């Protein structure tokens, strides 16, 4: 069986990386000051952060139904089945939309709800590629991926409260008080919506909190599993490399991988955000 794998740019996978993996990528749409942009097509990360820092009004969206079905139709001309891996159903309607559309494809399109985004979504896609190479059919691959969906833990710390306020995630008053007191929220993604994990004073404490949380997850929740530590960042690549080295020193038994946060997350955190994940691979 010849199987095509699709994911979206919320995975943080870039076009050249998708080509290397042999997968297909749906660009996520953004409305910026009322104009439509597609991530990786006419919107680069550099352009995004420049516009964001200039105060542009940025809103996230989901791929249009036509863009999704057009890609499915194209791939089914040369493949027996399509595995579609959108961002978490808890964070977007992309999954429910894809499910509704797939009903017209007589079981040839399988939509996987992996409850993941960014680095955890990226690793799930890599697992899907490996499973297909092992000779499993599309239904078996999706069943295994969904069984493993919640075997991931992500913590995230924005460097500023400005974009959380702009996106309505916190009130202007809370943002003002937090800025004065240097309050940093540590957020978590555990298969559901983005939740508050802890509020601390300063980025140093936020980093310590995230490292300790991942260390605890490794020793408890993922103690008997093949869990990998990964990091993510928003903004300049130098931020990511410095963060990766710091986490690598904290977890010397790991080979810590680093990737840029997807722009849909950066839309709410702004540049300078740091993320860390403990993710079980198959």
Task: Give a description of the structure.
The chain has 282 residues and is an alpha/beta fold. It folds into two domains: 111 residues, 3-Layer(aba) Sandwich (Rossmann fold), CATH 3.40.50; 129 residues, Hypothetical Protein Tm841, Chain: A,domain 3 (2-Layer Sandwich). The chain is built from eleven helices and 13 strands.
Summing up helix and strand content along with how strands pair, one would put the structural category as alpha/beta
The side-by-side strand order for the widest beta sheet comes to: 10-9-8-13-11-12
Give the CA-based shape. Answer: globular
Helix content: 40-55%
Biggest sheet statistics: 6 strands, mixed
Radius of gyration: 19 Å
Q: What is the CATH first-level class name of the largest domain?
A: Alpha Beta
Beta-strand residue percentage: 15-25%
Short description:
By secondary structure, the chain is α/β, with parallel strands linked by helices. It folds into two domains: 3-28 and 63-147, Rossmann fold (3-Layer(aba) Sandwich), CATH 3.40.50; 152-280, Hypothetical Protein Tm841, Chain: A,domain 3 (2-Layer Sandwich), CATH 3.30.1180.10.
Tags for this entry?
11 helices, alpha/beta, 4-stranded parallel β-sheet, Hypothetical Protein Tm841, Chain: A,domain 3, 282 residues, single chain, Rossmann fold, 6-stranded mixed β-sheet
Provide the fold topology.
Elements: E1 3-8, H1 15-21, E2 24-26, E3 29-32, E4 35-38, H2 45-53, E5 58-60, H3 65-76, E6 81-85, H4 94-102, E7 109-111, H5 119-133, H6 138-147, E8 152-157, H7 162-166, H8 172-181, E9 183-189, E10 195-201, H9 202-219, E11 227-233, H10 237-250, E12 257-260, H11 263-269, E13 274-280
Parallel strand pairs: 1-2, 1-6, 6-7, 11-12
Antiparallel strand pairs: 3-4, 3-5, 8-9, 8-13, 9-10, 11-13
